[in-house]
UniProtKB/TrEMBL annotation:
Keywords: Metal-binding. It comes from Corchorus capsularis. The lineage of its organism: Eukaryota, Viridiplantae, Streptophyta, Embryophyta, Tracheophyta. Signal peptide: none annotated. It comes from the Eukaryota. GO terms for molecular function: metal ion binding. This is HMA domain-containing protein. Residues 16-83 form the HMA domain. InterPro entries: HMA_dom, HMA_dom_sf. The keyword Metal-binding applies. Pfam families: HMA (PF00403).
Length: 135
């Protein structure tokens, strides 16, 4: 049992590491939400959230970019604590977005689904047509 090793079954290079992120936390409820989200990831051993510094530290066998993408699903403004790590993420995002823009062409029209998404929501309709229970 003492000679057993943890082997991750994926082709990405991952190793035990600390991942430090700057995450905007607005309340202690946000702190719990962040901790719960990250603690359910596979391979993560501990999650430390510092509300005063707006800092989240994750320790475990994980890919730091996967941790950041999971964190961005809850907090869009999340970024790495070290500025040089953020530069790598921005370069990758810029490289991925360039081919997508070239495929659309100059006469691009949004799909019907996108146009319908801009219509009024149920909440907006309720504000417009309020019910009166007195007849």
């Amino acid at each position: 049992m003492a000679n057993m090793q943890i082997v991750v079954a994926c082709n990405k290079q991952v190793e035990p590491q600390y991942v430090e992120m700057m995450v905007p936390l607005y309340s202690y409820g946000c702190e719990r939400k962040v901790k719960k989200t990250l603690s359910h990831l596979k391979g993560i051993y501990s999650v430390t959230v510092d509300y005063n510094q707006q800092k989240v530290t994750v320790w475990g066998i994980c890919n730091k970019h996967d941790v950041l993408s999971t964190m961005r699903s809850k907090r869009k403004e999340a970024r790495f604590w070290k500025p040089e790590d953020n530069i790598e993420v921005e370069e990758e995002a810029a490289a991925e977005s360039l081919p997508a823009k070239n495929n659309k062409g100059s006469n691009y029209k949004p799909s019907l689904a996108l146009m319908k998404a801009r219509s009024l929501s149920l909440k907006a309709w309720k504000k417009v047509f309020t019910r009166s229970y007195s007849f």
